[in-house]
Design goal:
This protein is α/β, with parallel strands linked by helices and 466 residues long. It has helices spanning 15-18, 31-38, 48-52, 59-67, 71-79, 85-91, 113-127, 149-160, 177-180, 189-201, 218-223, 254-261, 289-300, 321-330, 397-400, 431-434, 439-461; strands at 141-145, 164-168, 205-207, 228-231, 237-238, 251-253, 281-285, 305-310, 333-336, 338-346, 349-363, 369-373, 379-382, 385-388, 392-393, 426-428. It is built from 17 helices and 16 strands. The chain has a 5-stranded parallel β-sheet with strand order 3-2-1-4-16. Strands 6-14-7-8-9 form a 5-stranded parallel β-sheet. A hairpin with a 5-residue loop joins strand 11 and strand 12 (369-373). Helix 4 crosses helix 7 and helix 8 (149-160) packs parallel to helix 17. It starts with 14 loop residues before the first helix and ends in a 5-residue tail after the last helix.
Length: 466
């Protein structure tokens, strides 16, 4: 068999078109393209790609099905381990996970595993979604806090074990970070809605506008008859720089900016009555995927110039290579080794930012070289909008209202790799445990916790609820 060295390209909206709309940028594979790409897989026996996947999808097996043209068989294989494939195929950092350890990738480009997963999921939506069989009803009731990737995954797995599951979501729409944090052009909301609906079809109940810790506490959930609780409430509390001028009009946290645009549909104003002001010159502070999302969103909302200010070099940026590439194509400017020290205002309104140039010193606790200010290198940029995208922290509400729940100094819930916390019957996973991370890592945590919850229930009570 002749090896094709490069991935089958995926069609995309041209940059000059997509900066004028919020439609999805990559357009997906055709069946012919998917089969062509699937045939690049070596079907190696070791299959390191499976270990590279946080939810351990049987990757060679589903790819072999695609190569045979058995698309229904492919999605069945995927859904044995991952119940949100249309989401994962779009936003997972495959290049640092399954594709990073692909055997073919040692000499050539790795197999486009993420693109093939997306293809299989999209094919299923076009040809009818199958609901997998459920286990025998156990009578156990499990409450899941949060309907983001960790919560949805945990809920789906628990239902497949036969348990009754109720998800409690604080917002008015389900999906968590999938709906409030990730822009339409990267993850269309119809895809999230479809995946959530598939979880509901398993028999999972979903209660919206319920703030656990305020509307109801975890102790009250146990008193209401739940046998276990999984906390997957994410990390939605924005971090700020702590520099002068952050209270000026025109300075946003990325959390507020993206929530207004995504969840509250500001990009469809005035069809949706959510105004958002974006000026002509925008500075986005940060170098992760959220910074890329904010910068690319600002362009689509009409900004003439969008600058990403990052205190390290491009090599240290945590954002996906694909997202940086798309941002550059669309005209986003990157200013590396630059850090804001003060926002400048006039009559309470943002007009500029003072920055200092940086140099890299010795590695810090993250393994990246520590940025050090260069004395006397200060300069200013004229801007009228700033978006702070330097990360999020967990909201303290649940830890504060749950006695006996151990919390770290960073405000995260302390849990082991299976989601077991210091409080019996309470499990946790995703960003509430790790701090802000990726969708697929949260899903992996939700899946592991579901297995731990199932084992906990059966060991404590037996095979059926008392």
């Amino acid at each position: 068999m002749k090896i094709v060295p490069k991935k089958t390209p995926m069609r995309e909206q041209p940059p000059e078109e997509r900066i004028k709309n919020f439609r999805e940028v990559p357009l997906g594979y055709t069946p012919e393209e998917a089969i062509q790409e699937a045939k690049r897989c070596l079907q190696c026996k070791r299959a390191p790609c499976i270990q590279g996947c946080p939810v351990n999808i049987k990757i060679p097996k589903f790819i072999a099905k695609i190569a045979e043209g058995d698309f229904r068989g492919a999605i069945r294989v995927i859904k044995e381990d991952n119940y949100l494939p249309a989401i994962c195929g779009r936003v997972c950092p495959q290049e640092t996970q399954c594709e990073a350890v692909c055997t073919l990738g040692r000499k050539f480009e790795p197999v486009a595993i993420g693109r093939l997963e997306r293809f299989a999921a999209d094919w299923e939506y076009e040809h009818g979604v199958e609901i997998p069989p459920l286990g025998e009803p156990t009578g156990f009731r499990v409450a899941v806090v949060g309907s983001g990737p960790a919560g949805l995954t945990c809920a789906a797995e628990l239902r497949r074990f036969g348990h009754d599951v109720v998800i409690f979501e604080a917002l008015h729409e389900p999906g968590g970070v999938l709906v409030y944090g990730i822009p339409e052009f990267r993850l269309p909301k119809r895809i999230v809605a479809q995946e959530v609906e598939n979880v509901r079809k398993l028999g999972v109940e979903l209660h919206l506008n319920v703030v656990v810790g305020r509307t109801v506490t975890i102790d009250e959930l146990f008193r209401d008859g739940f046998h276990a609780v999984f906390v997957g409430s994410g990390a939605g509390l924005p971090r700020f720089l702590g520099i002068p001028g952050e209270s000026l009009v025109g300075v946003y946290s990325a959390n507020e900016f993206l929530t207004r645009v995504n969840l509250m549909r500001a990009y469809l104003f005035p069809e949706y009555d959510t105004p958002i002001k974006v000026g002509r010159r925008v500075a986005v502070v940060g170098g992760g995927n959220v910074a890329m999302d904010a910068a690319r969103t600002a362009l689509r909302l009409g900004a003439e110039r969008v600058m990403v200010l990052y205190r390290r070099t491009e090599a240290e940026m945590p954002a996906r290579v694909e997202e940086v590439h798309h941002a550059k194509e669309e005209g986003v400017e990157f200013h590396f080794l630059v850090n804001p020290v003060r926002f400048l205002g006039r009559d309470g309104v943002l007009v500029g930012v003072e920055c200092v140039r940086m140099e890299l010193g010795e590695p810090d606790e993250s393994g990246r070289r520590r940025p050090i200010p260069i004395e006397g290198s200060n300069f200013t940029l004229d801007i009228d909008t700033a978006i702070i995208a330097i990360g999020n922290s967990p909201h303290p509400l649940i830890p504060r209202t749950t006695p006996g729940l151990e919390v770290s100094r960073k405000g995260t819930i302390v849990a082991d790799d299976l989601g077991v916390t210091s409080r019996e019957g309470v499990f946790a996973g995703g960003d509430i445990v790790t701090g802000a991370a990726t969708v697929i890592l949260a899903m992996g945590a939700g899946k592991r916790a579901a297995y731990a919850i199932d084992r906990f229930l059966r060991e404590k009570y037996g095979e059926k609820a008392p």
